[in-house]
Amino acid sequence: MTNISPNERFRYEIKYLINSSQAEILKYRLSLLMDKDNNAIDGYYFIRSLYFDDVNNTAYYEKIDGLEEREKYRIRFYNYDHSYIILELKGKKNNLTYKRQNRITEEDYNNIINQNYDKINIEGRKVLEDFITKSKRNNLIPSIIVDYSRQPFIYPVEDVRITFDEDISSGRFDYDLFSKELLPYRVLEPNEIILEVKFNTFLPKTIRKVLDTVPKTRIAVSKFALCKEKKEV
Predict the structure, then answer these.
(1) Please, are residues 43 and 34 in contact by the beta-carbon 8 Å criterion?
(2) What is the DSSP secondary-structure string of 16-31?
(3) Does residue 233 carry a pLDDT above 90?
(4) Using CA atoms, how far apart are residues 123 and 90, in angstroms rounded to an integer?
(5) CA–CA distance from 191 to each of 42, 86, 154 (Å)?
(6) Mind listing the pLDDT tens digit for each residue in 60-113?
(7) Which pLDDT band holds residue 6 (cuts at 50, 70, 90)?
């Protein structure tokens, strides 16, 4: 497990499964209180992530088993923009989440996929350096691609971020992040949406009251795990 810095920022991350009607009600009510994310286009942005795991699917089973301390690596980009690619470590410790990330280039990505690690400049990129070390030691390989559209809302107090993730899909055996031939398959039913609520130490009462206006089903399964399960079906 990665050593955690004393200055690491931990956050709460709560997930719910809701339907499209509930989502529309919440979106309208939250829009009266919260701001839109400037990175969104017409309110949304597209995310594609490539997750890595070892041959024993350790990251997947740690998630399914609910281990209190776990982590996984992913490479992602937004709105099909190849100029902004992120390598991210996402971890969990004592029910709190943390993230670390480095920007990488498309050339870095190709070298990672082809395991040409010696060709990658790791200077000043600690997440990338650790990822390469663990890839060599644990033989991390591409595991699953996850696609979805996200509508985000933000609130400055406690850095609240509420997102609606829709059209969650994956490519079963295609591991090319930039593939134009990816044939995605849907992971959830068409009217099912994942609501994510993230904040630092407490959720402001005004936001909590709005969220309480619709019934929700809290879930522990991640989009990564959902896609992995569908892949094996």
Answers:
(1) no
(2) EEEEHHHHHHHHHHHH
(3) no
(4) 21
(5) 20, 30, 24
(6) 999 999 888 999 999 999 999 999 999 999 999 988 999 999 999 999 999 999
(7) very low
Integer CA distances (angstroms), 221 to 65, 132, 151, 224, 227, in order: 10, 27, 20, 8, 10
Q: Which contacts of 207-211 are long-range, i.e. CB under 8 A and separated by 24 or more positions?
A: 207/30, 207/33, 207/34, 207/155, 207/160, 207/162, 210/26, 210/29, 210/30, 210/33, 211/26, 211/162
Instruction: Give a three-class secondary structure readout of 153-213.
Output: EEECHHHEEEEEEEEEEECCCCCCCCCCCCCCEECCCCCEEEEEEEECCCCCHHHHHHHCC
CA distance 8 to 74: 19
For residues 183 and 207, what is the distance between their CA atoms, to the nearest angstrom?
Answer: 38
Does residue 114 sit in helix, strand or coil?
coil
Domains of the chain with CATH codes = 12-232 (3.20.100.30)
pTM of structure: 0.92
Return the structure tokens found at 188.
């959830």
Rounded CA separation 137/160 (Å): 37
Output the six-digit token pair for 140.
């991390």
145 near 177, Cβ under 8 Å?
A: yes
Tokens describing residue 23 = 């989502």
